[in-house]
Task: structure prediction
Amino acid sequence: MRWLLLKDLRILRRSPLLVGMLVLYPAVIGALIGFAVSNPTAKPKVAIYTGVPIGHRVVTLGGQKIDVSKYAQDLYSSITPIMTSSPAQAVADVRSGQALAALIIPSDTVKQIQSLIATGDGNPTVRVVLNDRNPLERDLVQQALQSRVNAVQSAISSQLLTTIAADLRLVLTGGKISFLGRSLDLLGLRNTRTIVQGAVTSLPAGSTLAPALGQVVRFANVAIDGLALAAPEITSVGTPLTIDQTELSGKTTPTASYAIAIAAVVLLMFVTLLLASGMLALERSENAYGRLIGLLRPSQLLTEKVVLATLCALVLTLTMSAILSAFVAIDWSRFGLWVLALGFGGLAFASLGIAVGALARDVSVASLLAFMISLPIAFIALVPATAVSGGLATALNVISFLFPFRAALQAVSNAFTGIAPSIGLPLLHLVVLTLLFAVLARAALTRFADR
Amino acid sequence: MGVADTPTLSAVALTRRFGERVALSEVSFGLARGELTAIIGPNGAGKTTLLSILAGALPPTDGEVRVAAVLERRAGGRDPSRHGLPRGSVGWVPQEPALYSKLSVAENLRLFARLEGLTDPEAAVTRMLEQTGLADRHRDQVGKLSGGNQQRVNIAIGLLSEPTVLLLDEPSSSLDPRQRARLWEFIGELAQLGTSVLYSTHDVHEAQQHADRVLALEEGRLVFAGSPAEMDWEY
Result:
């Protein structure tokens, strides 16, 4: 087997173009997929026009003031704002492609909000102009704007309800209010009821005022009971939901480390699959299979291809990870676990590769099959479980379970960062897949040898 | 029967089925030491199947192959490898050159010499380079050689272990007349030195000229076994 291994390495050394492509292609694809999957979405460029003058961006609710510009800052943190001098300029920026969308805030927006609150008569409207050339980009910017507009609406309604609740409490219990610059004492329903009840008891018997004042007291009782119940509820509606967020695993894998893990596994997958399948198929293409099989057991031939592919891929993947670790923090003290995870992943992919190579009759078919298998299993494994509906999610999970990509990614990601408690389970999964594909390869080899 | 008369290779009721199709049906014969034997027959007669079984590259469904009294391959064996049995007894030269085109002539020979488990691979390589007249081309990549020279390397690999039996599958099919003449001269010398040679061919005239004995296969059955002279009358 040693001589066969050296022979294959010599053949690879004499195929610089093939080896170059085999290294560069998956390295580039892996890095691109890794960073595309794990990077936060880029901030969309949005042209902004606000006609509301500075100093007039405060909405007054009772005694409270809401500075709307604070929410504008929140919006700007999730987009790249392009400030414009007119609504026409904002729309022109969208048309020219400089901005994905325009947000136009008319000059009377704050006045309209104030009027709506004070009198119920007002129609505050902001205008959003979307570029519909790219639906994905349109959705992206729409989501960013919608979430911020919702935040403003939520803040105003919350403040409004808090103010109403405070006013109701004043009506109920009395207190000082400010009106037209003057401070006034408000009697309140409870005090009113006490006073009226006192007046009723001091009336002479048979007084004609007693029934009328009794009605006032009963009304006061009902109103007090109702308002005492309603005020806290209104306040709670102002802050309808408190979110208590918990991270299940305590911490999450850093996105940059996860990107490196994805890049490493993509490189591992391509190199092992293509090498194992191609080098096994090469034995047939060169007509050497019949001669070799008279000198070696088929299992020895298959093992040699698995070892060759795994070793080459391991060296390449570790080298790439080491280079990338110069830019992203990776825990070097876990190097042993890296080798373990990448090694087991390589074995599983190489085992799949020899199954492909045994099924194919020549190198070109084997390479094509390897490509056709590798790209879908990578993408299927990377589809988030929440991104698709129940039945499809189950199907994708089953497919991911039957191929080594997801298990290898879990093992490598855990080995890189040490966030998850153990890599034992994914490694066991990879061992089972290695054996499964090796059996399949052996059966395929026998079947074709018999033809 | 004395030791000298013992066949170097015996095929005993060899049968090979591929699913329902019978490629070879109860074929029996023996090869004497230094005998040059041709297998003839039309396409699909079972020539390559027979040679593959004799070479140990394919297991028979029934029957067995005996090499110089050593049981080489029994029926029902699923592992076609000859691993564990005496190596070097049978040399195998497939129809298409079974060579690595990216390796040089010497590297190809060295690889198979090592896989054969020869005690002195370098000596075997040197000997075969001289014997096949390829010494001056030993550094050349096989992929850059002519078809004739590739076939010479192919045969050289089959002879690396100095086998008592050499099996060749249509060895002259890709050669021009001059290369063919050199090939038969070379094979004739091997037979004279005591190697039993069994080769397949489509060409009846080639078999008549370059064989001591002819085996004719038809639809997997052995329909003739005799001298080329007898073949004129019976086949």
Notes: Chain A touches chain B through 24 residues (CB under 8 Å). The CA atoms of residues 161 and 238 of chain A lie 5 Å apart.
